[in-house]
Amino acid sequence: MKLGISIFFTFVAILYNSGPEALAEIAEEAPDVRVWAESLPELTSLGLKAPTSVALLTGFQGDDRANGIPVYRDFDPSSCRKSSYLNCRSSADATYSHLLNTSPASLGLDGAFHVTGADAIVYPERGKVYLKAVEQKEPFEMSLAVDDLKALAPAALCEKIIGSLGYDGVVLDVRGGYVLVGSSDSRLKKPNIQGLSLSGSAAHWDLLKQEKEGAGLLALVNRWNGFGVFRVVISGAGQQKIQPGSKIILESK
Amino acid sequence: MAIFLAKFMRVFCIGLGLVWTNEFALAAQDLTQLPTLRIVWDTKNSVKRSRDHNEATWGEVWNNSCKTLGERFLVGKGVYGTGAFSSYSCHEGVSVVGDQEKNVWQLTYIEADDQIRLAVTDPAQKVMSELAIERSTHSVYFFSDSDFSDIVALYLMDGLPFIGRIESNSLSPEARLQVRRGRSKYGVIPVPRFFVTYALSYDDRTDVFSAALKGRLLNQTKRLSAGTDVGAKSQERSLIFQADTSLKKSLAAAPFWFHTDKGRGKMAKRLMTVLLRANERLISMVQEGSIKEYVSGTYQPKNTIGGYVALRYGKQLLNGDDLVEKMSMIGVVAEVRGGVLNGMRLYYDTQPKVELVQNGYDTSVQWSRFIVGKSFGLNLNRFVDRIEVTPKVGVWSFNANLPTTTDGGGNVTSVGSFDMQRAISMSLEVGAEWSSRRYSLRPWYSFDGALMNSGLGTKQVTSSRVGLDFVWSFSTGIRVAHTRLHPAVLAFGMYESISITDSDDPDVSEGDQKIIGVNYSGGYAGFGLGVAW
Prior knowledge:
Chain A has 253 residues and is of the alpha+beta class.
């Protein structure tokens, strides 16, 4: 309820402040989602405060998170990409990479980041599952069972990762009056979906503890493999401006 | 206008963000360029070289060795198609600073007091792979031995994040790679089950390598040899690796690096076993003085024990004179074959004093002799392996009270005394030998004579003896310093005829008689224990 009221008044404020600007860019033709998505460089290079490349671990040798060789969940990485924007790092690449390294920096959780180049790692420890982003000092606990980490299909795991961060998608790029949002197929397939960009969200990895304040309204134009092109219906200004890294909540109308 | 400025600022900021993030992305560098290898004998940090060569000769030896070793680091030139450098160069003197811009790696060879050390460093001078084994005075010759360099190169390459490289045209139309087999006279070099090919990137901030796998090269030698154009002769010389489906699809994007299925450094233990065996063999060649011939392939094996030292004991076996029957001998014998002391022989034998009262007369004999000789031999390899002549010099001490006359019944009727201390002796021995690395059997004849002139007369002892020596060296042994020592057993038999003469000595006490001329004979047989090399 509070969220709904907050969103409503935010909507009104946006309309009042940025009406002409918001409407000026609607006339452009919507980009093709697949072409747009494939034209982007490696998502980790965009520097977004959101996971774009994930490594899935089932543990560490010797149960040593600091110095043990990471043990990766064995799966075909292409199975991730078809269902969400997240890029799951190849377990085969990562496992063999560790065999080529002798540096202590290749060990432990930090070693998994260095070897895989992932910006988020999911791993089990003491019966719980954690997600740690490369820039975060502390991991946060996911609502995921250890058995599920080992058994769930990678697509389902990616779904869980996206959902555990307090938002449904992240803006990857902006072109004129359109934004490319990274989310998951299951979310984007919901009927009559619209998106709400959250104010100031580009600066945060997760919105679990932040107050969510709407900053813009988005309408889905087309989608493909977890990517969606949204038309900016209403856009805020300043901190409320939709930008790469802005977090999106998706709702059915 | 406002909209234009807004768009411009948006593009500017995004561009700035991309540049900023790309700075971090570029810290992980794709390693695609082939490095070159600089091979340096760091003489500044090595022990002084043996003086049996001058500097120019050592330089030539190093050049030859470096070329043999360096070849095996080139792409495809090592064992099993290993090798990941485009070229190499040989240097002597000080270790050269790495050249980061030109992708130059360095292999540094150092001779320390008891070890030789080889280390491969990257352009940032970080040690990537290293090796240390026992040193000999002529270790640098070892790398001229192709098999030895094969093992050394493979060991060092195995310690790198890549062991080899394939280009898009490295494989045959059937996607096969034919590589040189690692046959070694020192033992089996482990064969990888398959190679893993990959693109490689390196982050110098974290010193971490990341591989993107492209596929495998599977060892298919046996499968493909049967009924194909790869015949038995090819199989003796080479192995065949077949690209799997994944690699075939990726090949257009080559070049790729490759390593063994187990990864970096995992062959080290097995390779070291072979390497130590090779090093030991080559060290023995240095000790034998045959290293040049061995590495050049002209070595003819010497079928002899390298040398031995033993303690021996013999007992008089002949029946006859009661005093002689009590005699025994204890001694030390040493023989050296090869090296600076080649042919040297050393004997120290002593006969403990034996005493016997014969017909009321005190009789006794005691002697000791220390003899050093140098044998000169000729290898015949017909009927006997070798014949030898050994001139010897020594010091002989002899003290005896021996019967000088007996009656018709053989009873002693008079005795004479003889005393000679530390008289110089000369002798000559001739012998023949049958031998191998494990045993030596040698019949011989020796004539010794010791003479002492006291001013009033001359004392003389001569020994004419014939014997048979047998030495057996066990195959097990232990390493001591640079040498492998084996336990050895000796057996010997000897027949000796001793003749003693003395001129008049007015100081002899009344009642005593000097020995003018006495002969006695004895036959010893005995055994000994020692070490051989």
